[in-house]
Amino acid sequence: MATLEQVPDSTEALRRALTQVDPARKRKDVVMRVLVYLAFALAILPLVSLIWSVLVRGLGRFDGYFLLHSMRNVFGGMDAGGAYHAILGTVLITGWATLISVPIGLLVAIYLVEYGTGALARAVTFFVDVMTGIPSIVAGLFAFSLFYLLVGPDSRSGIVGAVALAVLMVPVVIRSSEEMLRLVPNELREASLALGVPKWLTIVRVVLRTAVAGLTTGVMIAIARVIGETAPLIITVGASNSINNNVFSGNMMTLPVFVYNQYGSGLVACTPGDASCIPTINYDRAWTAALTLILLVMLLNLVARGVSRLFSPKTRS
Amino acid sequence: MSQRIDAKDLNIYYGSFLAVAGVNMSIAPRSVTALIGPSGCGKSTFLRTLNRMHEVIPGARVQGTVEIDGVDLYGAGVDPVAVRRQVGMVFQRPNPFPTMSIAENVLAGVRLNNKRINKSDANELVEASLRGANLWNEVKDRLDRPGSGLSGGQQQRLCIARAIAVRPQVLLMDEPCSALDPISTLAVEDLIAELKSEYTIVIVTHNMQQAARVSDRTGFFNLEATGKPGRLIEIDETATIFSSPREQATEDYISGRFG
Q: DSSP letters of B140-188?
């Protein structure tokens, strides 16, 4: 009987040992937990506030009319005008920038991951890192000077802006693609090579195909990085109130420049009693254009997610 | 279909490091040759020189000759890509292409080379290869499902099906069962016994029972010390190697006294 009573005793001792929490550790846990939550709140607060302000101030004018009309023949406090020309300009210029930067970026990344060894690869990596830090205004000046030398003083056009944005995109595309290509297991390359598939086909059909989801995300990040650029576009593309769908000639409007110009125009001095004149019209249009830009980026993100889901490797069906 | 392999005075380097030295080996057609030895002794390195996969690693190179039916694989003008179509390989870890279905994985050697193949030929090739790899009955109803959804043993047999679908002369296997459970291992070993009638097979294994079970001849690799090159100590009939090897080192290794 004595032994039977001793068993619960040792069980109790074990239970105490297992349930007793070190008070210092518990304190540290609470402190760190609070810090982590605070940091999260601090990070999310500006974002929420930003989206809230843009929605509150921009939603009022956000309609089909705004999206489908330009600023041509719009003046003073007229209750009219939209950002169609700016949306078109942003889509075209960013599209051309993507068209220029993705092939370059992807090929450089393939070189670095699949071919590059030694000094040249290290040099490329170094200069890509340097390029990542180029201020956007410098990229704008570079593109402007380049076309000034090639075409002459009258070179302002969408394509110059696209080149400026491409200079900013290329290092981002290289970096993200490089990471993604390195994630492709070496076993897949070897499996393909061992089947008698040449190296270039292995890269195209196996490596790129396996990494395509990540590559899409990388390109999206690069687009998001440049779609809101203002300064280089003011230098290279200028501004316009009319629709211009030719990137090779003439000024173009883009959404960030539109926001900048509208906000800079300030309040309209309306004649008292003129009901059709809205004093804050320029501010309103700026906020709505900002909202449009945010929605555009979100839309592109959704498309990219769809693409990467479609192509990502599936384990179970 | 299958052909003999002769390695002569083969020295294998990683950069300036001599990894395997002086290998002389003859492998008869339609036989299974097992390579055993402690880790790092160069079995896999040697295996990879037989289909020129060794040089895929930067800085890796080879001295000496490897002849298949008298043609030196390292001779002038020999295309490593063509060599790999003749000499297939199965790797240690099953590596089906994750973006492809089971059928597409089997056809990978054809499709990745941008070769056209009509639908009925493709279906026939898939069935023949999967039957050859003893996998057909398990997957015939889900050929369009992802290959990576199969179990480890099935994936490995899928990789074997993929390798034999390009109709190689020789099949190299680098520890094909080391990531598999005993039942899958048994399935792969049965498969090796069947494939022997058509292919010349060279298998690297850490499992001496496996070497004894599947192979006709066994080669023992060893290295004197770390940093020294690995060498082929002896190669003989499997029964001889496991009962009365000529070298003391082989007997020590097989009886578990070291390694």
A: TT-TTSBGGGS-HHHHHHHHHHHHHHT--SEEEEESTTTTS-HHHHHHH
